[in-house]
């Protein structure tokens, strides 16, 4: 089985090579992202393996279908970049629903601690033999209130970590589950009462710009915003406004609305054209990491294993537990309410 692997990076190649060799899957790596301009590279392959910033809009799916490709394996959990209705009944789309939720939750806490205790500034100072403590005062997390939006796999692990720090946990979820040691509240209450807000819900029509000017206006002065989910959950210009108005005390962003042309690549020798990102990065109370929350050895191994298994299952039986629901909109045939899928 030959799979065209787009947006390939040095860190994921060894894991996919090992899994592929063990199961007869030949991954052909392309460093370029999958776009309408690069889709022809997939010709001759049996399937495509793509990541969060690849373009899987309707034109690309159409082109893949035309060249006989019948499976797209997303090597990630999120799939907001896939035109599901265009794929319905034509190309199977599979994903890795969970690989290491711990990786993302732990990175979220790492960002929070770095921001609150100014570790990044201290590191740079002491390398310069500057041992002054001026401007490094932080605050205790113990006793603070954290508001978690999205209590799925990652959100719940982050909640447990926060409870370990002695924090009070509020949560909001569109589909709330059991509240184990935390309290579900409305989104408005969460905004109003939280010292720290962490986003762990998916990006969709109802969560696009969940954090906008109106939401920020409801927040506590000095609130810390954490986003390790998807960039467009936050209106980045509204965030800049909230920081300038001194409502947002700090923000830690592993994801950014316009990241697809920038993240995962080295622009250190270039002038970055994105003024919003440049403004955010220039602020002393913003920390940006480039979508690295997932990046642990455990997660990479698990992503490669599940992706390979997904591809083999589709090739062998046309069925896979990790196939997506295509939101086909056909109420007659859709079994989504029962099985979360319509095929
Ligand atoms: P999950 O599916 O286990 O949990 C998502 C939760 O969000 C569910 O409880 C769901 O009910 C809730 N939700 C859905 N719509 C909502 C809404 N409108 N408002 C509030 N809550 C809503 O997903 P998981 O594994 O916890 O991942 C969460 C997100 O993390 C993913 O959607 C993905 O975007 C992001 N992610 C980021 C990574 C990174 O490297 N930065 C890596 C992996 C995932």
Indicate the topology.
Layout: E1 2-5, H1 13-23, E2 26-29, E3 47-50, H2 58-66, E4 71-74, H3 84-87, E5 92-94, H4 101-117, H5 119-127, E6 145-149, H6 153-164, E7 168-172, E8 183-184, H7 187-193, E9 196-199, H8 213-217, E10 223-227, H9 236-244, E11 248-253, H10 275-282, E12 286-288, H11 297-317, H12 336-339
Parallel strand pairs: 1-2, 1-3, 3-4, 4-5, 6-7, 6-9, 7-8, 9-10, 10-11, 11-12
Helix pairs in contact: 1-11, 4-6
The site of 1,4-dihydronicotinamide adenine dinucleotide (NAI) has 30 residues, from helix 4 and helix 6.
Strand order of the largest sheet: 8-7-6-9-10-11-12
Largest sheet: 7 strands, parallel
What best-fitting shape do the alpha-carbon axes yield?
globular
Q: Which structural class do you get from the secondary structure elements?
A: alpha/beta
Rg is 21 Å
Which molecules are bound besides the chains? 1,4-dihydronicotinamide adenine dinucleotide
How many domains make up the 3D coordinates?
2
pLDDT averaged over residues:
94
Q: Kindly provide the name of the CATH class of the largest domain.
A: Alpha Beta
Order of helices and strands: EHEEHEHEHHEHEEHEHEHEHEHH
Number of strands: 12
CATH superfamily of the largest domain: NAD(P)-binding Rossmann-like Domain
Percentage of residues in DSSP E strands: 5-15%
CATH topology of the largest domain: Rossmann fold
Q: Portion of residues in helices?
A: 25-40%
Number of helices: 12
As residue ranges, the low-confidence spans are: none
Q: How far is the N terminus from the C terminus?
A: 24 Å
